[in-house]
Every structure is written in C-alpha cells, then in structure tokens.
C-alpha cells in the first residue's frame, strides 16, 4: 500500500527513485580494486599474509600476497558493478557479484585441518586454471617448442 505522499507524487507525475546502496549516504565509501591486484580474498576474518597455508595457495596460483586484496563480504557490495577480478571466498558461501573465476573454501583455520577441503580447493584451481594462468602455453604448444 502506497503512502499518501507516494500517491500525491504519482498524481503530480513526479518519478521517485530508490537508492541501490543507501549505505553510501551514511558515510560508507566505495571500494575500488588497485590495478596490481589479481585475486580478491573475501572472508569475515581476513587471513594473515604470512600464514603458511595462505602463502602456499597463492604460490600454487603463481601470486604473491601483494597481488591480493582482502575484503569482508560487507565491503564487496561496495565494489563498482563492472569489477572484474578472480576471487577466493574463505568461509563465504554466497557467490560474489564480481566477474571472474571464483574459488571457495572453508575459512583458513578450518581449511588447514581438512584434507578434503584442500583437495576440493585444488580441484577448483585446476578447473579454473585458464583464468589464473592465462599464458600457460595452453594454445597447443608443448614445452619443447
């Protein structure tokens, strides 16, 4: 049911707009991905860049911690709509509205104790390897060429 104000505005032919991200007016700042970033790391509790497992996963992706950008799920919604970057969701089940390959694993503490979750993460990395290793020689050339 529309309010009297809404009804009056409609009768006057005035279009009303609805904010998609009202938090921006409350002082939240839009987030942008730095140009050197190749992987968004999304988690409620962001991993320490010196964590051995975190570094091992990055090494398997041929990345350094400096090429990652850590965000909480609340910050991800503040990214511009046209953001394109590969991502790794740690304990964040809901897919991101960001273009690019998306990896999922449990939070890092749980991942470190679960061999099955590590295996599943590795399978995802292999499945999306063309996104992480674009110059991997997959064009039909062998290593001997």
UniProtKB/TrEMBL annotation:
Keyword check for Nucleotidyltransferase: yes
Q: Which UniProt keywords apply?
A: DNA replication, DNA-directed DNA polymerase, Nucleotidyltransferase, Transferase
Organism's domain of life?
Bacteria
Provide the GO MF annotations for this entry: DNA-directed DNA polymerase activity
> What does the UniProt record say this protein does?
Part of the beta sliding clamp loading complex, which hydrolyzes ATP to load the beta clamp onto primed DNA to form the DNA replication pre-initiation complex. DNA polymerase III is a complex, multichain enzyme responsible for most of the replicative synthesis in bacteria. This DNA polymerase also exhibits 3' to 5' exonuclease activity.
Q: What is this protein called?
A: DNA polymerase III subunit psi
Q: Please name the source species.
A: Serratia aquatilis
């Amino acid at each position: 049911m529309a309010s009297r104000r809404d009804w009056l505005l409609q009768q006057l032919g005035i279009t009303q707009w609805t904010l998609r991200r009202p938090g921006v007016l409350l002082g939240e700042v839009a987030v942008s991905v730095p140009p050197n970033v190749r992987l968004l790391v999304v988690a409620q509790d962001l991993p320490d860049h010196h964590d051995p497992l975190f570094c091992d996963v990055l090494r398997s992706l041929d990345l350094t911690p400096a090429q990652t950008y850590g965000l909480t799920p609340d910050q991800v919604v503040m990214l511009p709509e046209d953001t394109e970057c590969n991502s790794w969701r740690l304990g964040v089940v809901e897919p991101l509205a960001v273009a690019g390959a998306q990896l999922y694993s449990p939070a890092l503490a749980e991942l470190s104790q679960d061999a099955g979750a590590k295996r599943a993460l590795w399978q995802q990395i292999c499945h999306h390897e063309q996104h992480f290793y674009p110059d991997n020689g997959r064009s039909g050339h062998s290593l001997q060429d």
